[in-house]
């Protein structure tokens, strides 16, 4: 029986991909590296350090560990400064309605994000009241596609994985949900999250009514 929901943050609750893009692009330009929206899309769900490694690989280059950390910190400063513009108007369409509905129906709700800036984003959105448990980039050491962040959320909610549905927009996030034995809802195109149990193009389509209709024997 489904008793809880675990939400990824970036790309599910709010669309930070554009802000991440601007910050990575600025760093890549300074380094003389190629970086475009296709590469940015590959960074969905993966940690900051893993993201730099993807960008390096795309440019057929390598960096010493200390330089890599320095660049990651620089990119993060740009990204964090850009979060100041985010307000409680910046939920993805449908996200706030779904979170509200889950509260009304009494489900347990956790955040399961790879971001170390999740607290800041939740504060900008004024979203803390929707979550019983916050799992972020500081909560576990193995990032997605490892299931650890979702297992952390389930454990804190005192639920088993098979009692939870994970919402994710990243390929690595759906991989993580499946690896942990969770039910999954993918938000985005077939080629990215087609391996989820259920997929919607947008959060606006992902209503509790639709989710219950699909997983009906589990409610
Ligand atoms: C999310 C985003 C990724 C980002 C990661 C780490 O999963 O989708 O693009 O790299 O969080 O975020 P952070 O805010 O810690 O750099
Ligand atoms: Mg995401």
Automatic annotation (TrEMBL):
- The residues the record assigns to binding Mg(2+) are 8, 10, 168-169
Tell me which Gene Ontology terms the entry assigns under biological process.
carbohydrate metabolic process
- Sorted UniProt keywords: Magnesium, Metal-binding
Q: Does the keyword Metal-binding apply?
A: yes
Which residues are marked as site: Important for catalytic activity and assists the phosphoryl transfer reaction to Asp8 by balancing charge and orienting the reacting groups?
Answer: 113, 144
Cofactor binding note of this UniProt entry: Binds 2 magnesium ions per subunit.
> What is its cofactor?
Mg(2+)
Enumerate the residues binding substrate.
Answer: 8-10, 24, 43-48, 51, 75, 113-117, 144
Query: What family, per the record?
Result: Belongs to the HAD-like hydrolase superfamily. CbbY/CbbZ/Gph/YieH family.
Q: What is this protein called?
A: Beta-phosphoglucomutase
Q: Which organism is it from?
A: Flagellimonas pacifica
């Amino acid at each position: 029986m489904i008793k809880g929901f675990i939400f990824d943050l970036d790309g599910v609750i709010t669309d930070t991909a554009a802000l991440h893009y601007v910050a990575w692009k600025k760093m890549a330009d300074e380094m003389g590296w190629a970086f475009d929206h296709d590469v940015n899309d590959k960074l969905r769900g993966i940690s900051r350090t893993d993201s730099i490694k993807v960008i390096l690989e795309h440019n057929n280059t390598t960096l010493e560990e200390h330089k890599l950390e320095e660049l990651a910190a620089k990119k993060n400063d740009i990204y964090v400064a850009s979060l100041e513009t985010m307000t409680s108007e910046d939920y993805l369409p449908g996200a706030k309605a779904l979170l509200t509905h889950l509260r009304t129906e009494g489900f347990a709700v956790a955040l399961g994000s790879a971001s170390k800036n999740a607290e800041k984003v939740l504060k900008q959105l004024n979203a803390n009241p929707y979550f019983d448990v916050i799992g972020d980039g500081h909560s576990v050491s193995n990032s997605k596609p490892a299931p650890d962040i979702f297992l952390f959320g389930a454990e804190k909610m005192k639920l088993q994985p098979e009692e939870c549905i994970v919402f994710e927009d990243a390929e690595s996030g759906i991989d993580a949900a499946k690896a942990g034995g969770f039910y999954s809802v993918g938000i985005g195109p077939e080629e990215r999250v087609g391996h989820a149990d259920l997929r919607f193009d947008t959060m606006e389509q992902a209503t509790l009514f639709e989710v219950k209709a699909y997983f009906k024997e589990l409610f």
